[in-house]
Amino acid sequence: MYFEQFNSSTYEEALEIWSKEAETCNIFPQEVVRQLKWIGESLSTQATVQSSSLAYGVFTQKDKSPVAVCELVISQKGKNNRWMKLLNVTLSPAIEAKVEAKDLKAIKTAVTAYRTAVAGSFDAKNDHNIDTLKLYGRNKTMLDLLITTYAALEDSESFEEIKKEGRWLVLRS
User: Fold this and answer.
1) For 52-94, what is each residue's pLDDT tens digit?
2) Single pTM value for the model
3) Residue 67, SS3 per DSSP
4) How many CB atoms lie within 10 A of CB 147?
5) Which residues have CB under 8 Å from 155's CB, separation 6+?
6) Is the separation of the CB atoms in 35 and 20 below 8 Å?
7) Alpha helix segments (H runs only) across 25-158
8) What number of other Cβ atoms are within 10 A of residue 159's Cβ?
9) Coil, strand, or helix at residue 45?
10) 66 near 14, Cβ under 8 Å?
11) pLDDT for 10 beyond 50
12) How far apart are CA 59 and CA 39, in angstroms?
């Protein structure tokens, strides 16, 4: 899997395929459109200096549509204090439905997608010249993943600072 920023083509492809998956999985297609609408908005507007939303996807080599959509936000607190935040990782309707049905292959795909999102976010912060990445545990699954990631990285010398702040995992290089 790989982590890539959306463009208009990958957004349109995701919207079409995820809508079809929603129908097949008995999920409201309008909900999927609502979930992905912010991507189109972020592609059509210019980012502000204070805060910008970036849409990334986790893709497999064989699929045109992402297995997950990731919302990254760049926040600026003062002149020299910029953070990149991974706010949300949304699995595709097909993967989400299979995970809920306890399909082991889908669970493995979801875990790999989350790992790819975290690693990709860390690389993206470097692309945007930011030294701090904050990962948000929006739901129980993501929070559990972040706690596990924290435990695995706590003694790592790869980071200047690793700490947990409530539902946030903060990585500073």
Assistant:
1) 889 999 999 888 899 999 999 988 776 677 889 998 899 999 9
2) 0.86
3) coil
4) 13
5) none
6) no
7) 29-44, 93-100, 104-127, 140-153
8) 15
9) coil
10) yes
11) yes
12) 16
**37, 21 in Cβ contact below 8 A?**
no
* Cα 95 from Cα 58, distance rounded (Å): 12
CB 66 within 8 A of CB 112: no
Query: Whats the size of the chain, residue-wise?
Result: 173
Q: How far apart are CA 138 and CA 45, in angstroms?
A: 25
Q: Nearest Cα to 125, choosing from 155, 63, 170, 61?
A: 170
∠ at Cα 117 (115, 118), nearest 5°? 65
DSSP 48: P
d(CA 93, CA 100): 11
The residue with tokens 């609502």 is 34
Both structure tokens of 129: 């010249």
Residue carrying structure tokens 């600026």: 76
Q: Is the pLDDT of residue 131 over 90?
A: no
- Strand, coil or helix: what is 16? helix
As given in the structure block, the two tokens for residue 18 are 């995820």
Beta bridge partners of 51: 75
Q: Cα 98 to the chain's mean position, in Å?
A: 19
The pair of three-digit structure tokens given for residue 48, joined into one six-digit string: 């502000």
Name which of 44, 89, 92 is nearest 65 in CA terms. Answer: 92
pLDDT number for residue 147: 87
